[in-house]
Amino acid sequence: MPRQLIIGSIFIGGDIHEALIPFTIYSGGGTGAVVKLSRAMAEAYGIPIILESDSVVGGTYAAASHMGIPAILTEAGQVGQLDENAVSTHLRGLNNLLATFGFVDAPVVSFPPAQIMRQFIWTRSPHQGLFYRYIQPGQTVHRGDIGGILKDAYGTLIEEVLVPQDGLVLFTATSLAINRDDPLFAVASE
Length: 190
Prior knowledge:
Elements: E1 8-12, E2 18-20, E3 23-27, H1 32-45, E4 49-53, H2 60-66, E5 71-75, H3 84-100, E6 115-117, E7 119-124, E8 129-133, E9 140-141, E10 146-151, E11 157-162, E12 167-173, E13 177-178, E14 183-189
Parallel strand pairs: 1-5, 3-4, 4-6
Antiparallel strand pairs: 2-12, 3-5, 7-14, 8-10, 8-13, 9-12, 10-11, 12-14
């Protein structure tokens, strides 16, 4: 790979109100060469779950791809906590990505093949209220399962929030108080 390669890599440790399992996303919506390099970056990073998003809008990795810049978004760490394992995941991933593309003189680590997911659905809250989650990150779920319930401040059930597809739970909201349109959870599938 040429040393002039621009790598737009974004590192995120999970929002303060999210519990998650580590995953990496790249955009499949760019040109063939950009998609190929972005996927190679995701594989070099070494997180065992990779999402190929068909979006070219809505995230910095997608915006970079749209501009012709290979990019990934990595998620490890959660609920605003400093987690030594998550920090190690990011350091190991970044070092291996830089070694893989020849930016540093270091051995390249080979990781087991990642699970590639192509369908990634976020479920957002249809109401303001209190969210009681029934599912956990890393759990396998099925379409129609109850992902959680929304109640009002007095404990009255507003709605059961259903899982939209079969798949793997990537993240869930951990905050009890939820605004309308806040993300509640995401489920990915192959």
